[in-house]
Structure formats: C-alpha cells, structure tokens
Specification:
With about 375 residues, this protein is mainly alpha-helical. The protein has helices at about 1-10, 10-25, 30-65, 70-95, 100-120, 130-145, 160-200, 200-215, 215-235, 240-275, 285-295, 295-310, 310-335, 340-365. It is globular, with a radius of gyration of 22 Å.
Length: about 375
C-alpha cells in the first residue's frame, strides 16, 4: 500500500512544497492556485494508480502465488489512494509551515490507526483482512476530516489558462526528477536485504536486519529535520541566505559527529541488552551502519539546496549512482563478508553522497 502511494505521488509533494514556499513570498494568490492544482494532480495520480492496481490485482496475486488473496491486493491499492491524498494534507501544512498543526494531525492519525487495531484485537476480529481494511480506510477518513483543520481558501482560487499551464509545467518538470530520486531511494533502501537473502545465509540476513532496525534512529531524526527544513530551504533565493544555511549545517555536522561517536560506543551494550549475546556478531555491522546513516543527518538537509536552486536532476543523478554502486559492491562484498559486506556497501554509498553534496556546497559558498 505504501509503495503504491509513493508511486501515486509522482514526486508532486516535494515539488509542491518547494514552489509553494517560493510563491508565498512573491505571489500569495499564485500560491493558493498551486495548492488547488497540486490537490487535483494528486487526486488524478492516486486515481490512476488505484484503477491500474485494481485491474492488475489478480495478476499480481498470481505472480506471488497468492491467488486466494487477490481481494486483499485490491483493497491495498484502494487504500493507496487514501494514503496519497492524506500525503497531500501533510504536504500542504508543511508548505504553509504550519508545523504544530502538522504534528497534531499526524499524531491524531497514527493514534486513530493504533486505536483501530486495538479495537479489532479486543473484539477478537483482528486478522490480516480486517487490519488491512483498517489501514486502508484510516487515511481516507483522515483526508476528509482534515479539511476541518486546514486553510481552505485555495479551493475557490482561480487563474488564467496560461498561468495554470505555467504552474503545472514547473511542477511537472520538477516532480519528474523527484520521482526518479524516490524510485532510486526506495530500491536502495531494500537492495541490501534482497541481495543478502539471495547470496548469504539466513543468519547473516538476520544479523543485518536486526542491526539495521537498531540504527533506524538516525533516519527517524533525519526525517524530522527534513520535514521542517524543506519549505524553509526552498525559500532561500539568495547566495547569502544559502551561505548562512550552510553555516548552520556545519554546526549540525559537529552535533551529528558527537551523536555518531556516542552511538558507536553504545552499540555493543545495546545489542547485548536488547537482542542478547547470540547477536554479538552483529555489533560491527551495527557500528558500520551507525556511521553510514548518521551522515544523512547533514547530507540530506544540505541536498535540499539542489531543490532551492531548481536543480533536482543533480540529486536524481546522485541517487541513481548510489543505487548502481550499492548493487555492484553488494555483489562483490556479500559473498565474502556477509552482513558486514552489505554494511560496508551502505557506508560507501553514503560517503559518495557526502562527497558529492560537499563538492556542490563548496561551490555554493564561493558564490
């Protein structure tokens, strides 16, 4: 369901936030028009993916030798439309920098989903089918109810045909590169485990999976940072503003280095405490992943400057290079080093990203 929703997004959310932040400073009426057009584009994309998924559900079920659950695949694709539309609400709040409202609605949505699962469990009706129905219906309900809490003046916004074409052209031209980045990143996040399952033992796969789960604290923090920073960075339209931002990122890099060092030292006791001594072999894997993922605390926020400079194609190029390098390194390192080989591959592609972004950042500082 989540993957289908990401495909239905077509990169619109990021492009929407980027241009909305710019228009809010220069032309408020145009910004409201963008909010309306982004909603229509999201609805069209969600509807197209949903209908395509409904038509292909039986074939997908056959592909996974799961013909008896074709109905569940249909429900998942129907739910993906709700997830995509709920994503629009979140993007709209971020674009307007209404972060408190964003946090409250997101928390309420997650509590609602959790409450639905608890209710199903207490009523002894919890199962794969009932849980999927709850997960599919929750974002649809959240999307509809959210209009009680967000600015709705954009619904009645109007503009000329030429203006509409220009806005859609800018949005589509930007979003296609974001979509490519999203696809490359989705594959990159899953390549290690897929290749470990194919090329290493179950023990190695389990060690890597456990270590990766423990290291996810860094992507979570990175996600929180980028949620706030994307609309802010998108509005940076001067070289001086970008240089100030990079100065803040230098301070963030110091904090990230300290956090990385502390987490690396704590990796051994943490694994033994949470997973037991049987997973001690995964400690080097966890430490390698901590170093790799901590780089994202700085690299991802700095990479947003590609969006501010209307150069998303450069970020797409980086993500595609990372994916290709990750596959190549995994093919060489996993047969020899197992889980640690996959972790080294992950660290290498993150170092590539750091070097790539740092090279552009250096040029931006000199502007």
């Amino acid at each position: 369901m989540t993957i289908a929703a990401q495909l239905a997004d077509f990169g619109i959310n990021v492009g929407f936030i980027r241009f909305a932040a710019e228009y809010e400073k220069t032309d408020r009426r145009k910004a409201e028009r963008l909010h309306k057009l982004a909603l229509l584009a999201k609805a069209a994309g969600a509807g197209a993916v949903c209908l395509l998924g409904l038509a292909l559900s039986s074939r997908i079920a056959q592909l996974f030798h799961d013909e008896g659950r074709a109905g569940l695949y249909r429900m998942a694709f129907a739910g993906s439309a709700g997830v995509a539309l709920w994503g629009y609400i979140q993007a709209a709040l971020r674009a307007r920098q209404l972060f408190r409202r964003y946090a409250c609605l997101t928390l309420a949505f997650n509590l609602f989903r959790f409450g639905a699962i608890v209710w199903l469990w207490r009523s002894r009706t919890l199962g794969l089918e009932s849980a999927l129905y709850a997960m599919a219906l929750a974002p649809i309900a959240a999307f509809v109810l959210s209009f009680l809490f967000i600015p709705t003046a954009f619904i009645s916004s109007k503009g000329s045909a030429d203006e509409t074409k220009r806005i859609l052209r800018d949005l589509a031209g930007f979003s296609k590169w974001v979509m490519l980045s999203t696809l490359a990143t989705m594959l990159l996040m899953r390549t290690d485990l897929f290749m470990l399952k194919a090329m290493a033992s179950e023990i190695e796969t389990g060690l890597y999976g456990s270590a990766s789960t423990l290291a996810q604290i860094f992507p979570v923090i990175t996600g929180a940072l980028t949620t706030v920073l994307l609309p802010t960075v998108s509005a940076l339209d001067s070289a001086a503003g970008r240089r100030r931002y990079l100065g803040y990122m230098g301070k963030l890099a110091l904090a990230a280095a300290i956090a990385c060092a502390a987490a690396t030292l704590a990796a051994g006791p943490l694994v033994r405490l949470l997973l037991g001594g049987a997973y001690a072999a995964g400690i080097p894997v966890l430490r390698t992943l901590i170093v790799a993922l901590s780089l994202g605390l700085v690299v991802n926020p700095v990479a947003f400057l590609f969006y501010a400079r209307k150069a998303p194609h450069l970020l797409s190029l980086l993500n595609c290079l990372q994916l290709c390098l990750n596959v190549a390194l995994n093919a060489v390192l996993i047969p020899r080093f197992g889980a640690q080989g996959a972790a080294i591959s992950t660290l290498t592609v993150h170092c590539l990203a750091a070097g790539y972004v740092a090279g552009f950042a250096r040029a931006w500082i000199r502007e």
